[in-house]
Amino acid sequence: MAYNGTWKIDRNENYEKFMEEMGVNIMKRKLGAHDNLKITIQQDGNKFTIKESSNFRTIDIEFTLGVNFEYSLADGTELTGSWNMEGNKLVGTFTRKDNGKELRACREIVGDELVQTYLYEGVEAKRIFKRG
Questions:
Q1: Based on C-alpha coordinates, what's the Rg of the chain?
Q2: Which strand ranges, in their side-by-side order, compose the sheet holding 113-120?
Q3: From CA 10, how far away is CA 51, in angstroms rounded?
Q4: What pLDDT score does 33 carry?
Q5: What's the pTM value of the predicted model, to 2 decimals?
């Protein structure tokens, strides 16, 4: 259960470009790049409870590995999809409800950091978190 705990955003790589590709307007991109996101992860077997807390919202997400669920991004984009474990990586495959395009996400522990990688329409971004 290496993911368990609280993680605070430390830095982003290519995140504004990713948000632009997702169709997020410039004001929301500027704010989103500095959202002070904190993620609390609790894993119990195949079940995960995640609390996301930022300058804009606090949301609780519960999911079971391999089971589809619905989720809304901070900008209101609605997704459906699931998370699965691939080795030590938590890999998510989601479909946007508005245009049917795929968003992939990956969470993995690298050293003492949680690295969250996004891929949408060929644009990759990373958000790197440190234990809080």
A1: 14
A2: 58-64, 47-53, 38-44, 5-13, 123-131, 113-120, 102-110, 89-96, 78-86, 69-72
A3: 17
A4: 84
A5: 0.93
